[in-house]
Automatic annotation (TrEMBL):
Name of the protein: Fatty acid desaturase 1 isoform X2
Transmembrane residue ranges: 88-108, 114-135, 223-246, 258-284
Organism annotation: Hipposideros armiger (Great Himalayan leaf-nosed bat)
Swiss-Prot/TrEMBL GO biological process terms: fatty acid biosynthetic process
Organism lineage string: Eukaryota, Metazoa, Chordata, Craniata, Vertebrata
Pfam families, alphabetized: FA_desaturase (PF00487)
């Protein structure tokens, strides 16, 4: 090895795209960071070296032509201004969340605490929690402001004060998912394999051949409705987030989370009492959990799931994601994550621009013979169940016949 630069540092210095050292790392580096100069200061401490000119700069498992054309596409997208956010859009989005929050409280305050107002309040608060979840996702990806500081501050406010969850936990989990989506043991979003579900055709067959049976996987498309959507938030995330912040000593996150619980306590205990508030809280988490799981899994679970095969960045993202058709409701309901393909290719792009770049991504996929899947919302939901049923059957066949 000659020289003293890492690939990431080379990319940060501006000459990276064409330089050998940066060839393999430039795409995720560019995708995740909005301030390359700031990150460069931290990258300098990780200096390793630079490939000599005669050494190959691209591994044979990776599609160089696709990668080069995607980089041209990204340059075009930046020239079009699609990486710049419309701040009015996000301000109105935040205001609509706050209005729903107030409306939930007013429902009980004005109409009393009988069953119907209680249920309406729970539905409104579930919408608040789901929509705040999509909004914190925007700030967490640094896609709203041009500086990390403002994105991080609003991220803390939305996920901490409006949702009661830690920003550091989200960052820790979510960026691993984006770096290696649907790659077993690298994407934490598929850690339910193999202890709860057998995921993906390849991994399910492998599990069957190894005679492993942690659950009756051939019935997983049925018990998914019991331990998937309704249980993830109230029975797991709700408790794990506190363990996470205390175990890692994330005291700033904990302080933000406490403000959420103080606010909920002060506003709802006078109306419902402590028991009533607990009932409302867990009903909201139950409804939000169903909303969250169906939306987040519809784009990934039906797609390719396997060990990391060391393919290029673009191929990694495309084989793990699919879209749901655009509509005003689908955009709102999913927080624009119905454009999961575009989001994974351009994670710092403001969500209101996904539909503008989508035709360009479709053209790139068509040119290289890559499937670009977009489907109706309920078809996407059904595909989750269908893929679980299919992988469960593959597991059973391998389990019985190997």
């Amino acid at each position: 090895m000659q020289g003293t630069r890492t690939a990431g540092a080379a990319a940060a210095e501006g000459g990276g795209v064409g330089s050998p050292a940066a060839e393999e790392s430039v795409d995720p580096f560019v995708a995740f960071h909005i301030n390359k100069g700031l990150v460069k200061k931290y990258m300098n401490s990780l200096l390793i070296g630079e490939l000599s000119p005669e050494q190959p700069s691209f591994e044979p498992t990776k599609n160089k032509e696709l990668t080069d054309e995607f980089r041209e596409l990204r340059a075009t997208v930046e020239r079009m201004g699609l990486m710049k956010a419309n701040h009015v859009f996000f301000l109105l989005y935040l205001l609509h969340i706050l209005l729903l929050d107030v409306a939930a409280w007013l429902t009980l305050r004005v109409f009393g605490t009988s069953f119907v107002p209680f249920l309406v309040c729970a539905v409104l608060l579930s919408a608040v929690q789901a929509q705040a979840g999509w909004l914190q996702h925007d700030f967490g990806h640094l896609s709203v402001f041009s500086t990390s500081t403002w994105n991080h501050l609003l991220h803390h406010f939305v996920i901490g004060h409006l949702k009661g969850a830690p920003a550091s936990w989200w960052n820790h989990m979510h960026f691993q998912h984006h770096a290696k989506p649907n790659c077993f043991r690298k994407d934490p979003d598929i850690n339910m394999h193999p202890f709860f579900f057998a995921l993906g055709k390849i991994l399910s067959v492998e599990l069957g051949k190894q005679k492993k049976k942690y659950m009756p996987y051939n019935h997983q498309h049925k018990y998914f409705f019991l331990i998937g959507p309704p249980a993830l938030l109230p029975l797991y995330f709700q408790w794990y987030i506190f363990y996470f912040v205390i175990q890692r000593k994330k005291w700033v996150d904990l302080a933000w989370m406490i403000t959420f619980y103080i606010r909920i306590f002060l506003t709802y205990v006078p109306l419902l009492g402590v028991k009533g508030l607990l009932g409302l809280f867990f009903m909201v988490r139950f409804l939000e959990s169903n909303w969250f799981v169906w939306v987040t899994q519809m784009n990934h679970i039906p797609m390719h799931i396997d060990y990391d095969q060391n393919v290029d960045w673009v191929s990694t993202q495309l084989q793990a994601t699919c879209n749901v058709h655009k509509s005003a409701f689908n955009d709102w309901f999913s927080g624009h994550l119905n454009f999961q393909i575009e989001h994974h290719l351009f994670p710092t792009m403001p969500r209101h621009n996904y539909h503008k770049v989508a035709p360009l991504v479709q053209s790139l996929c068509a040119k290289h013979g890559i499937a670009y899947q977009s489907k109706p919302l309920f078809s996407a939901f059904a595909d989750i169940v269908h893929s679980l049923k299919e992988s469960g059957q593959l597991w059973l066949d391998a389990y019985l016949h190997q």
